[in-house]
């Protein structure tokens, strides 16, 4: 087995019902790679009806299966709504909700138990990069956020430098290659088949830079925010991955 190519879209807190037409416009684009869209939770079930071969995922889940946790959503609920994947540990959740590596790992265990594939996010802040701490930060986040039950079949890891998200700034090819090589090496050492976990890059991926990013070693796809909202942007990114 080798790592599967995945073009994943994270709609974040964007999208009302009318946005589902973008999924119709993506139909048939998924030749040669997997495609995932993670809309807001309110759109998961209707999105499945528009998705065709495109997988639908959530953007977070609670570590518990049910209970007194107002406003939260469990992995079983996501699965029941039609999701097959869930993004966990996105830097916006780490920053806005104080999520720790241990909480992300606990959520991932719950997600795997519910039959979901996890997309676990790691990434350094600009201050950490400037301090030369990037590789240590990524190694620590991988060690703490990826649970022991992770396999290439149930886990995807996304490298998203915090300073590249929504800023139009991207790391150099060498910087992405360095982090992806570390992630591949670390996962291979820890898991038997970890060498086959799909590794995504995320942060200001656009149609104009996608092909260049997908040519980098150990980059198996992208986790795309803003440019996943419109089929006219995300479609060319999927095409670039299929051709990479
Ligand atoms: O956070 C991201 C995806 O999860 C990246 O967002 P942008 O593509 O908007 O920079």
TrEMBL record:
Pfam family, one: TIM
Signal peptide start and end residues: none
GO MF assignments: triose-phosphate isomerase activity
UniProt-listed CDD domains: TIM
UniProt pathway annotation: Carbohydrate biosynthesis; gluconeogenesis; Carbohydrate degradation; glycolysis; D-glyceraldehyde 3-phosphate from glycerone phosphate: step 1/1; Carbohydrate metabolism; erythritol degradation
Sequence positions that bind substrate: 10-12, 166, 204, 225-226
InterPro entries referenced in this protein's UniProt entry, alphabetically: Aldolase_TIM, TIM_sf, TrioseP_Isoase_bac/euk, Triosephosphate_isomerase, Triosephosphate_isomerase_AS
Gene Ontology cellular component annotations, sorted alphabetically: cytosol
Catalytic residues (UniProt): 90 (electrophile), 160 (proton acceptor)
Gene3D superfamilies reported in the protein's UniProt record: Aldolase class I (3.20.20.70)
Documented EC number(s): 5.3.1.1
Superkingdom of the source species: Bacteria
Keywords, in A-Z order: Cytoplasm, Gluconeogenesis, Glycolysis, Isomerase
GO annotation, biological process: gluconeogenesis; glyceraldehyde-3-phosphate biosynthetic process; glycerol catabolic process; glycolytic process
SUPFAM superfamilies per record: Triosephosphate isomerase (TIM)
Cellular localization per UniProt: Cytoplasm
Enzyme class (EC, first level): isomerase
Enzymatic reactions: L-erythrulose 1-phosphate = D-erythrulose 4-phosphate; D-glyceraldehyde 3-phosphate = dihydroxyacetone phosphate
Family: Belongs to the triosephosphate isomerase family.
Assembly information from the UniProt record: Homodimer.
Reported function: Involved in the gluconeogenesis. Catalyzes stereospecifically the conversion of dihydroxyacetone phosphate (DHAP) to D-glyceraldehyde-3-phosphate (G3P).
Protein name, per record: Triosephosphate isomerase
Organism, scientific name: Paracoccus isoporae
């Amino acid at each position: 087995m080798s790592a599967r190519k995945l073009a994943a879209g994270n709609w974040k807190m964007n999208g009302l019902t009318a946005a589902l037409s973008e999924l119709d416009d993506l139909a048939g684009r998924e030749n040669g790679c997997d495609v995932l869209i993670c809309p807001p939770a309110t759109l998961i079930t209707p999105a499945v009806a528009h998705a065709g071969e495109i997988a639908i995922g959530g953007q977070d889940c609670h570590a518990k299966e049910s209970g007194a946790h107002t406003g939260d959503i469990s992995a079983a609920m996501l699965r029941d709504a039609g999701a097959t994947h869930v993004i966990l540990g996105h830097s916006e959740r780490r920053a806005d909700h104080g999520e720790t590596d241990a909480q992300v790992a606990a959520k991932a265990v719950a997600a795997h138990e519910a039959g979901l594939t996890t997309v676990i996010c790691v990434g350094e802040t600009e201050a950490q990069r400037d301090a030369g701490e990037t590789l240590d930060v990524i190694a620590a986040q991988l060690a703490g956020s990826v649970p022991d039950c992770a396999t290439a079949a149930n886990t995807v890891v996304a490298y998203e430098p915090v300073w590249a998200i929504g800023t139009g700034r991207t790391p150099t090819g060498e910087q992405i290659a360095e982090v992806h090589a570390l992630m591949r090496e670390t996962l291979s050492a820890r898991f038997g088949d970890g060498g086959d976990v799909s590794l995504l890059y995320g942060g200001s991926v656009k149609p104009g830079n996608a092909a260049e990013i997908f040519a980098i070693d150990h980059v198996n796809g992208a986790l795309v925010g803003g440019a996943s909202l419109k089929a006219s942007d995300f479609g060319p990114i999927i095409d670039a991955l299929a051709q990479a």
